[in-house]
Amino acid sequence: MAGAPPLTDGERWSRKLLADLLAERYRPAACVSFLQRSFAYAGETRRARPALARQARRWGMAGSAATVVVTPASRLRPLAGLAWWGACWAMLEWHIGMVEGPHGERHARLSLADALTLLRLGLVPVAAAPAGAAPWAAAIMAGAASDAADGVAARRAGPTRLGRELDSYADTAFFSAAAWGAARAGWVPSGAASAVLARHCAGLAFVSYRWFAHGSPPQLSADTRWAAAPTTLGLLLAVAGARRTAGAVLASTAAAALATHAAAFARDRSVAHDEAR
Questions:
Q1: SS3 of 252, please?
Q2: Residue 160: which of 113, 206, 226, 94 has the closest Cα?
């Protein structure tokens, strides 16, 4: 795309790996090789950036301790909460090579923005299985606050590839879990919660399709950051007892976000088609 910064070493490596997988048509042996090469590259990156790897490990251990403390605020067992956090920790360790700016400039440390995003991921078990209205509402407000603050912190520290991707996945996991948890508790209609899940799954599917079908990210992405505020409002209305109003807010916000994703997908396909000609 015109005006885009040149690919970093990490981005070129990722695209080469996916290109090889596509060329092999996702055969089992190719998938195994893809995972082996990915893990090997992640290990090399950790060894090449030991200070960053140690910081990620410290954050992972701190998150494990926090999970043990926070999980009782949900209906999940601590072991289930730890399993979720373990997956988040592994994802962080696997992707520390993405702690680099848009032009490939390496960042020496994970930033406050990364910590705020990981906080939102850590709250997913509480959001998904509410044990009571008060702790659930507190988790929703904390997650929404982290969503608002991590963007400000990222702009101050300088954006990174990791922060950009992690923020997107944290939003998807947190708000999807919150909608599911509200429906399980009977605070919102299941249809409204399903609409929230559908809109987040659509965004994830849009990006995944481009990566795994074409070996590159979307050339034009859907900006649905505006949806966080009305979604949070809908969730808080739900726990306050305004079930019908909450459902309407959540469903209408999800529908608008789905329309945004559909328009972005159509524009992306048109641009990709024009460039391929």
A1: helix
A2: 113
**Of residues 126, 119, 136, the one with CA closest to residue 170:** 119
Residues β-bridged to residue 100: 106
For 110, phi then psi, to 5°, come to: -65, 150
Residue 192 carries which side chain, given as an amino acid letter?
A
Tokens, residue 29:
């042996």
**What's the whole-model pTM score?**
0.92
CA distance 102 to 97: 13
Tokens of 104: 């490939």
Per-residue model confidence as pLDDT tens digits over 196-230? 999 999 988 888 888 888 888 887 777 899 999 99
How far apart CA 162 and CA 109 sit, in angstroms, is: 12
pLDDT in tens, 6-46: 788 888 898 899 999 999 999 999 999 999 999 999 999 99
If DSSP codes are grouped into helix, strand and coil, which group holds residue 123? coil
Helices assigned H by DSSP within the chain: 9-23, 28-48, 50-70, 78-94, 112-122, 124-128, 133-157, 161-184, 190-214, 228-239, 243-276
Closest-CA residue to 140 (of 118, 122, 115, 123)? 123
Residue 164's φ and ψ, nearest 5 degrees, are -60, -50
Q: Which two tokens stand for residue 198?
A: 């559908």
Cα 221 to Cα 210: distance, rounded to the nearest angstrom: 11
Backbone dihedral angles phi then psi of residue 100, each to the nearest 5 degrees? -150, 155
